[in-house]
Structure formats: C-alpha cells, structure tokens
Amino acid sequence: MTLGYIYHGFLTKLSKPNKKGQITATVKAFAIWWDNKDLRGGQIITQRPGYKLKHYPSKNGLKSAYYPSRKKVFYTTNYFVK
Predict the structure, then answer these.
(1) Angle at the Cα of 46 (from 6 to 24), degrees rounded to 5?
(2) Using the 8-state DSSP alphabet, how is residue 35 labeled?
C-alpha cells in the first residue's frame, strides 16, 4: 500500500472510512496538470488515459506542456506521463 494525497474532486465511488480512517475510491483522472511548478493551487487540468500530447522535460524533473487554447504551460510529475 502507498500513502498519497489527491484532491477529493479526482475521486469517485468513495467508501466510508474504516476504523483506521482509510477509504477506497476510484481515480477519475489519469494525468493531472498544474499551471505552477509547485504542483499545488492554481489552475489544474486532467487528461484521460491515451490522450496524445507533446510534453517536454523541465529543469526541475517535471514534464511540461504548452496548451495553446489556455495560452500557458502546465506541469505534471513523471509518473503521470509515459
């Protein structure tokens, strides 16, 4: 089991917490992109599995992609994008 944190809005089919406070849920999004390098706050977007895009490594080890429709760069971690 891996402990991690995710925004509540990215989950569906949440169970009630067990005695330890753990829940089970289904993740709705495959790739989560933030508009800042801190990967928190700001604007976020999600991409479905199999979505094709061009991404580029940034200096801090994150993947970055420019979205022309939004006119800005978004960042994600390496494990969200192959």
Answers:
(1) 35
(2) S
Place of tokens 């994008």: 81
Residue at 3 is within a domain: no
Q: Provide the residue-wise pLDDT of the chain in tens; the chain has 82 residues.
A: 444 455 555 566 767 878 877 767 666 667 788 898 888 888 888 877 667 666 666 667 787 888 888 888 888 876 665 5
Q: Is residue 17 assigned to a domain?
A: yes
Q: What is the pTM of this model?
A: 0.59
Task: Say how many Å lie between the first and final Cα of the chain, rounded.
Answer: 22
Q: Which residues constitute the domain of residue 36? A: 8-80
Phi, psi of 12 (to 5 degrees): -140, 165
In a 3-state reduction of DSSP, which class is residue 10? helix
| Residue 43 within a domain | yes
**Taking Cα atoms as reference points, which of 80, 1, 69 lies closest to residue 33?**
80
